[in-house]
């Protein structure tokens, strides 16, 4: 718990500069692959204090969340803890963001549940294979592929996942059992059996949600602390800060204590988590085959069973982790290396599979706790990792008494902020067409996650292609017609441009001269060159002229090398209009391709 906001701010402000500074004894290439070398030589006692506080705060959040997310993934509770510590140690060496924490998340747990059929062996193998895909993308610098997933698609998927996860916990909140996991069946059976609600679970779950909400509001509305305040005020502020930061651990502990009190009396009104495997996970290779009562399932069959999950899980994991890292880097004024983040999360999943972890990614909620706690370097993750390992070794017997309704409350309160209500209103005012990929993704993700993401990405791609094939053009009427493409000019757009030029200049009576203003055209291809050549011929046949203005050097070079008959280029629109109106003193530029290639040669009039 920080003694003052001033100390926290000073420590935080020095963190980014040190984390991004170069160490004189280490080559830059080595530092890019091992970012720890950039900040470790300058590590200070003040940073150690802040990192310890932040790591402890995140650990108290991570343990109850890990138990809860294992329920979302359809796995025994210990698998959530198995997944919560490897990323802490890997990111210590490879991470480029001081704030990010890797571990199980609600969205990733939902995907694991969907693609691994609630089988731990499938979940662990999926972590290994996802990590391999992510590592390959990082090594090959394929992080740019994530840029093709637009923000509306990401928001649509995240919002759909939030609804799916949140509603999926209603059954645990109300104490309902034997509810199907498929979303639409889940909704139907939950309302069908609402009369079977267990009063004890419902009351405890709602009380836990209320406590979590109150503690969160207290944290969000805490006034800043100043060193000149009385000691008692600062101590009370620190106490409230600690309680609100560790609210998940406090609420779950409170619920477990209530459940244990009833257990002692011989009456248990709650459905409990039950037995959790004790001790640290064994270190072993991921299961490349599974033996069942009906025989052995081979590696090939397991891969076929997981199907599209082998693409969806690593992709979503990368999207979530990089998005979290970039968001907090922008907020706290430092930079992250996206490809290095891919390597960090990929190696985390590969190594995690050797200790029975399921796929993990960057957690927005725990990263926010980390940042708000004043973390200065990725060393805070070491404290979190050690805390999770200690809980596995010594506290698993106590997890038996945690009511499932309390864990459901933790999950619902964790995912609720992920539903982005503002984006609908924002897109309505900014660009309504972007609501289409958002809504397509949102609706189809309730059917199949991969179909939702794929359909949303395809709709976004079609919109992008349409804008490239039908660029907007600005037309200025006057003695000479001026047409200016508002964006680039590529081969899909040539036919539309040709039709507009013909309709405005050559299919009218009498035909008109035209100036094509190309300021926004930065490159052209062979199809465009052919189209422009045909237009020049059409204008010559009609006895009128087509002139070009504002050509950038790469475009001018291509047009000159094509040796188009009748090609005329002017430096300014005024000169082009004078020439086309047959006024004296304005002549087109007569230059050779070699002149354009030579930077010493300026454009000279003939």
From TrEMBL:
This is Sodium-independent sulfate anion transporter. It is a multi-pass membrane protein. It comes from Piliocolobus tephrosceles. It comes from the Eukaryota. The keyword Electron transport does not apply. GO terms for molecular function: antiporter activity; monoatomic anion transmembrane transporter activity; secondary active sulfate transmembrane transporter activity. It is found in: Apical cell membrane; Basolateral cell membrane; Lysosome membrane. SUPFAM superfamilies: SpoIIaa-like. Keywords: Anion exchange, Cell membrane, Ion transport, Lysosome, Membrane, Transmembrane, Transmembrane helix, Transport. The chain crosses the membrane at residues 52-72, 79-94, 124-146, 199-218, 239-262, 308-329, 341-360, 398-419, 440-465.
């Amino acid at each position: 718990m920080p003694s003052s906001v001033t100390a926290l701010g000073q420590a935080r402000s020095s963190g980014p500069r040190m984390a991004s500074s170069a160490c004189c004894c280490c080559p830059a290439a080595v530092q890019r692959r091992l970012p720890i070398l950039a900040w470790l030589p300058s590590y200070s006692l003040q940073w150690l204090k802040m990192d310890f506080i932040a790591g402890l705060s995140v650990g108290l959040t991570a343990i109850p969340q890990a138990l809860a997310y294992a329920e979302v993934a359809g796995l025994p509770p210990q698998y959530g803890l198995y997944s919560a510590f490897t990323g802490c140690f890997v990111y210590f060496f490879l991470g480029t963001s001081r704030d990010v924490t890797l571990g199980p998340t609600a969205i990733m747990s939902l995907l694991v549940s969907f693609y691994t059929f609630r089988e731990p062996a499938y979940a662990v193998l999926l972590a290994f294979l996802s990590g391999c895909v992510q590592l390959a993308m990082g090594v090959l610098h394929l992080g740019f592929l994530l840029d093709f997933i637009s923000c509306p698609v990401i928001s649509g998927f995240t919002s759909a996942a939030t609804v799916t996860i949140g509603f999926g916990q209603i059954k645990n909140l109300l104490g309902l059992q034997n509810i199907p996991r498929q979303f639409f069946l889940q909704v139907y059976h939950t309302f069908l059996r609402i009369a079977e609600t267990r009063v004890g679970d419902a009351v405890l779950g709602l009380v836990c949600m209320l406590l979590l909400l109150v503690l969160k509001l207290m944290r969000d509305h805490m006034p800043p602390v100043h060193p000149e305040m009385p000691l008692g005020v600062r101590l009370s502020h620190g106490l409230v800060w600690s309680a609100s930061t560790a609210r998940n651990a406090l609420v779950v502990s409170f619920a477990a204590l209530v459940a244990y009190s009833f257990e002692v009396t011989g009456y248990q009104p709650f459905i409990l988590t039950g037995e959790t495997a004790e001790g640290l996970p064994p270190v072993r290779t991921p299961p490349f085959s599974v033996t069942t009562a009906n025989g052995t399932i081979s590696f090939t069959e397991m891969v076929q069973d997981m199907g599209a999950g082998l693409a969806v899980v690593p992709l979503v994991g990368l999207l979530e982790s990089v998005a979290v890292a970039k968001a907090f880097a922008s907020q706290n004024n430092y930079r992250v290396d996206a490809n290095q983040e891919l390597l960090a999360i990929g190696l985390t999943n590969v190594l995690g599979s050797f200790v029975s972890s399921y796929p993990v990614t960057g957690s927005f909620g725990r990263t926010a706790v980390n940042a708000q706690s004043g973390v200065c370097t990725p060393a805070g993750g070491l404290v979190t990792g050690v805390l999770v390992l200690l809980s596995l070794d010594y506290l698993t017997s106590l997890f038996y008494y945690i009511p499932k309704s309390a864990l459901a409350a933790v999950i619902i309160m964790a995912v609720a902020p992920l539903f982005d209500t503002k984006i609908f209103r924002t897109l309505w005012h900014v660009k309504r067409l972007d609501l289409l990929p958002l809504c397509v993704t949102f609706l189809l993700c309730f059917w199949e996650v991969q179909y939702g993401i794929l359909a949303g990405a395809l709709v976004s791609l079609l919109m992008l292609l349409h804008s490239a094939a039908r660029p907007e053009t600005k037309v200025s009427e006057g003695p000479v017609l001026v047409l200016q493409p508002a964006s680039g000019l590529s081969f899909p757009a040539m036919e539309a441009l040709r039709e507009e030029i013909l309709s405005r200049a050559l299919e009218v009576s009498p035909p008109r001269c035209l100036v094509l203003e190309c300021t926004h055209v930065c490159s052209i291809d062979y199809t465009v060159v052919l189209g422009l050549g045909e237009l020049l011929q059409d204008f010559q046949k009609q006895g009128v002229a087509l002139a070009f203005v504002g050509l950038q050097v790469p475009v001018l070079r291509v047009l000159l090398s094509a040796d188009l008959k009748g090609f005329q280029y002017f430096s300014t629109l005024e000169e082009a209009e004078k020439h086309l109106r047959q006024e004296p003193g304005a002549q087109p530029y007569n230059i050779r391709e070699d002149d354009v290639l030579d930077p010493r040669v300026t454009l000279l009039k003939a």
